[in-house]
Amino acid sequence: MRPTPIDKEIKLDPTKVIMSKTDPKGIIEYANEYFMEISGYEEFELMGQPHNIIRHPDMPKVVFKVMWDRLHRGENIHALVKNLAKDGRYYWVLTNFETKYDDDNNIIAHYARRKAAPGNAVYQIEKLYNTLLSIEKNQNEEVAEKYFYGMLEEKRKSYDEFILSVLDISSQDLKLYFLDDDELQKKTTNIKNKKGGFFKKLFS
Ligand SMILES: Cc1cc2nc3c(=O)[nH]c(=O)nc-3n(C[C@H](O)[C@H](O)[C@H](O)COP(=O)(O)O)c2cc1C
User: Using an 8 Å Cβ cutoff, are 184 and 15 in contact?
Assistant: First the structure.
């Protein structure tokens, strides 16, 4: 049975990564400890399950369509995702989806690394997702997809440029964002101490 969503947010530790690995179809094969802690599931409940086990009903279908289209083309993608925990609470994450290939260029796995989504980005994306969701409910997914690409055309931005503009960071800083605390400390002691650096921007 699906959990019933409740309007309560789970606060994430901004330094921690929520990671999972799936087979080519999105069946969960591995999830890290922080994934378990935040989602409220145990390993035996998650492994072998489709990843939509944590899908929140507030997420428009079109976002996952864009994500899967990109993964099938072998392109990585970032997305802002609202997830549903076992107890019905929600948590917003910025997710980096990546695909792994074997030597014959067949997809063997997908990986998702997630970190707490910055509040101002959630504020902006939530408005768009609500619009997409209501189009999907009242029309259909195809119409929502057209609206989504129409919006990007109007802004003269690719999907990736749009996400960067919502996050208000550079693609370079986005790479650093997904390092875990130890990796980050090694690489960014200088950046962290810099007044007005990207960490300040993301979590102000
Ligand atoms: C590596 C990987 C990680 C994923 N992580 C999530 C996630 O955190 N939340 C989510 O709702 N869907 C996630 N998905 C997408 C789901 O597989 C699924 O497409 C989505 O939940 C939409 O569900 P639906 O196809 O039943 O509409 C992930 C997929 C992959 C390949």
Answer: yes
Q: How far is the CA of 129 from the centre of ligand 1 (A)?
A: 16
Domain assignment of residue 58, yes or no: yes
CB distance 113 to 178 below 8 Å: yes
Per residue in 85-127, pLDDT (tens digit) is: 999 999 999 999 999 999 999 999 999 999 999 999 999 999 9
Number of domains the chain is built from: 1
Q: Which CATH number characterizes residue 51's domain?
A: 3.30.450.20
Residue 141: inside a domain, yes or no? yes
Q: Ligand 1: which atom is nearest the Cα of residue 110?
A: 1
Q: The domain containing residue 147 runs over which residues?
A: 18-197
Whether 20 lines ligand 1, by a CB cut-off of 6 Å, is yes
CA distances from 55 to 84, 122, 151 (A): 6, 17, 24
Residues 22, 47 contacting (CB under 8 angstroms): no
Residue 6 within a domain: no
User: pLDDT tens digit string along 132-188?
Assistant: 999 999 999 999 999 999 999 999 999 999 999 999 999 999 988 888 777 777 776
Give the atom of ligand 1 at the shortest distance from the alpha carbon of 95: 8
Q: Tell me which of 29, 54, 64 to substitute to probe ligand 1's pocket, judged by most ligand atoms within 8 Å of the beta carbon.
A: 64
